[in-house]
User: Fold D-alanyl-D-alanine carboxypeptidase family protein from Hyalangium rubrum.
Amino acid sequence: MTTVSATRAAQPTALAARSGEPTLREGAKGAAVTQLQNLLRNKGYNIAADGDFGPKTEAAVKKFQSSKGLVADGIVGPKTWAALKGGAVSNPGTPAGGKQVTAYVQGRPSTITVVPVGNGKYLRADAAKNFKAMQAAASRAGVNLTANSGFRSMEEQKVLYQKYLNGTGNLAAKPGYSNHQNGISMDIGNVGGYNTKAYNWLKNNASKYGFQNDVRGEFWHWTYKGGGVA
Ligand SMILES: [Zn+2]
Assistant:
């Protein structure tokens, strides 16, 4: 018989089994290191999530391993990954698939929880909840809304800003100053223009979910302003 507690207990194992993370040690660089650093930050370790596995990250890994009764060798293998992720699953308030990231508002960093909204994109948890509700309502009206862009890291915004400066990309806010970096703005796919069924549906309904089309000339760019169903 399956009980609620048995189902919950099984989750960390399932997550670890499908994760397939690489073994990491000092000197490693890249997205997996950033993921590791964000998981450590979730546990309260004060390190940068810069994708560079240096001495501070190694020290945090060793402390974390000690706290979990693992061999404190500073090498992040399957057991350490599982321990890091297992804790995240049972952490109340982090929705399924959610992760903590460094957000920026007016140039100032803070940590927020973002959750997936499809296409590999993320929004801040309250904005995501409203986008999903809005997407479901739109779908019932025959309008297919997708996420073309959501939360952006500092690195992602820097790339877009440079393209804008070079004249090869859309208008992009200065890094640190985009609402995409706060996880509340998204670029919605399939809108197609201002005079479309999708745009008119959004114009009439998005405010119920707290979203506004707040950049002139960008029919695709919608920002969650609060309220809605969250
Ligand atoms: Zn945008």
